[in-house]
Design brief:
Chains A, B: It comes from Lachancea fermentati (Zygosaccharomyces fermentati). The structure is a homodimer. Chain A is of the alpha/beta class and about 375 residues long. Chain A folds into 2 domains: about 190 residues, Alpha-Beta Complex (Quinone Oxidoreductase, Chain A, domain 1), CATH 3.90.180.10; about 140 residues, Rossmann fold (3-Layer(aba) Sandwich), CATH 3.40.50. Helices cover about 25% and strands about 25% of the residues of chain A. In chain A, strands 3, 5, 6, 9, 10, 18 and 19 form a 7-stranded mixed β-sheet that branches. Strand 16 of chain A pairs antiparallel with strand 16 of chain B, so a sheet runs across the interface.
Chain lengths: ~375, ~375
């Protein structure tokens, strides 16, 4: 079926979390077009682990939000590592123009007026709206990028430097930014920084490349040795397998940042990991667990070095633009396997990601051919 | 019995944690006198909650360390908020001289050679020795300041400015420094900082005064309203009782630091407290719980602001000297109730502190009269 744009978009949607692995092609009404909105005709879209949590509805105790959307579809399209072409801009848009190639990550709106928006922390704006599964002030529930088009506030449509292939720059929009922001914020101004990256997967493999590009000495930490060769190719200077007894010996007082990119923290031995930090440094989790999971760590564990633990969410516009520039200057690219978009392709990507069968990131491609767009 | 100094010190000691509330007067051998050691003739000594944990042996799963001391007593004297006069200095001592009034806090030794010692973080030196209950490299287990004398490395004997009464400056040596260091480190360079202090007790009441002196707008957080008037007198600009339903309303994105001075974290609702922090700021615990207690908090809780939680231990020499100068310049003093030292006095102080019957800090005084020193 041809896309009836701009009154309708097409995308791959579910209506029940039980069907998370089999989104179906559907047409749906986009949100109302506002003065700062931009329509992106999607060229490709990365597959992020967030999609699994969202489609399975594991980050919420309530029913899927789309079921109570004030207007638009009662079904849910995900996808928030979008690359595409601007095809329409609202009356007040100044940050991009029709024809630009832009990226869109996991956030599509913030208020632009609160202290957080005004201080480069729009990702923590209380009125922030995620690119999918999130309710706008007008009651519409956002629809993501496994679609012909996606609509977003201009602030979250990022200019992509020439020379970066779309399918490789897609994973930077969410996963890349998610690791770039805490790495930069934690090692900025540190002389000869040392960064440990736990979990060599979709997030971790970008964290290694980014840390190295930012000048850090990088230690990759994995359970076993299966990813050692890859980690070295990504740029890790050291590799540690925590299955090895005594792995922590000699690592006390070493790191300026430990970035946890594993999706769960419960499997981690924080009593061994935290003492590897230098004094007053941070252990930051970006891999998102089930909503009920807890950090299980004793206040006493922190006394060896006065360290802290926490989590970090996405990053700001300036940071994603910096990150893409860094990728050009240091010539690193996410390791991407592409899958042609279709119901079968989306299903394959989600199912294989759920099994961990990806090294290290999927990008869905071929949107123009599938949706008959790109003309 | 007269003190047989310098071959013996006298102090109030226990041999069994069951007797924690009734230390007995005893004579004991001090550690061997090294080139950087200083002997302090004690004038007065604060009572810190650490003493309760140590005497009850609640910070350890092993028997009292003194029972395996390589030499010296098989009994334990506590006390680590000491003020007294230098009566002997080792051959290499340059930081103080006989006759000086000095303070000694919870640490009596560090290696002076490791990266932490060389970067103003000697409190996190892997070879640090606590003022009591801690084993020196030579196997001696340190003995504290409920005593006629105490022996410590010169680096931890701090010059006390004239004009600060000894019984009021004693609580600064451990408790004061413990809150000063994280307050300073977390609000340094922040414009118009806002600090929340949880727990208006021995640590918290000093944290309020110190935060205010450092230029912060201070919010005192307590369970009920019983300490509201006191908190205001200490300098708190705002007061919150968490027994009040909806206490957290309007506090999102407010604080640059939440300092937890309560001795337990399990009673705290971190899901409500952490969102009160500004972006990327810290919740720091200094009140020490039972060794088995855990932080129970979800990674998701941190996503509203990218905050972190952790603990902080003591502070460095420079910080305690700064703190005492600040107390002079801003004319604040800990709120102290004095108790004359004796077996009965020590027992009264420990027992009342255990019940929380103190506003807000005890200092044991009258050491000269009791031990026949000070001549």
């Amino acid at each position: 079926m041809p896309v009836n744009y701009p009154s309708e978009f097409q995308g791959f949607a579910i209506t029940d979390p039980k069907d998370w692995a089999n989104p179906k092609l559907t047409s749906f009404q986009p949100k109302n077009f506002e003065a700062h909105d931009v329509d992106i005709e999607v060229e490709c879209c990365g597959i992020c682990a967030s999609e699994l949590f969202s489609l399975k509805n594991e980050w919420s105790d309530a029913p899927l939000k789309c079921l109570s959307s004030a207007y638009g579809p009662k079904s849910q399209v995900v996808g928030h590592e979008v690359v595409g072409k601007v095809v329409a801009v609202g009356s007040d848009v100044t940050l991009c123009k029709v024809g630009d190639r832009v990226g869109l990550g996991a956030q599509c709106f913030s208020c632009m007026e609160c202290p957080r928006c005004k201080s480069g922390n729009e990702q923590y704006c209380p009125k922030a709206v995620g690119t999918y599964c999130a309710k706008y002030a007008d009651g519409y529930v956002s629809q993501g990028g496994y679609a012909s088009h996606v609509r977003a506030h201009e602030h979250f449509c990022f200019p992509i430097p020439a020379g970066l292939p779309s399918e490789l720059v897609a994973p930077l929009q969410c996963g890349g930014l998610t690791v770039y922001s805490p790495i930069k914020r934690n090692i900025q101004g540190v002389k000869d920084p040392k960064v440990a990256v736990i979990g060599i997967g979709g997030l971790g493999h970008m964290a290694i490349m980014i840390s190295k590009a930012l000048g850090a000495e990088v230690t990759a930490i994995s359970r076993g040795y299966s990813k050692k060769e890859d980690a070295t190719k990504m740029g890790a200077h050291h590799f540690i397998a925590t299955s090895e007894e005594g792995w922590e010996n000699g690592l006390a007082d070493t790191f300026d940042l430990i970035l946890n990119c594993a999706s769960s923290t419960t499997a981690l031995d924080l009593d061994k990991l935290l003492p590897c930090l230098k004094v007053n440094k941070n252990f930051v989790s970006v891999g998102l667990p089930h909503i009920g999971e807890v950090f299980n760590v004793r206040p006493f564990t922190f006394f060896s070095n006065g360290c802290c633990i926490g989590s970090s969410k996405l990053g700001n516009r300036e940071e994603i633009i910096e990150l893409m520039k860094l990728a050009v200057e240091h010539n690193f690219r996410p390791w991407v396997e592409t899958i042609k978009v279709s119901e079968a392709g989306v299903s394959e990507g989600l199912t294989r990601l759920d099994k961990g069968d990806v090294r290290y990131r999927f990008t869905l491609t071929g949107f123009h051919e599938f949706f008959g767009t790109g003309k």
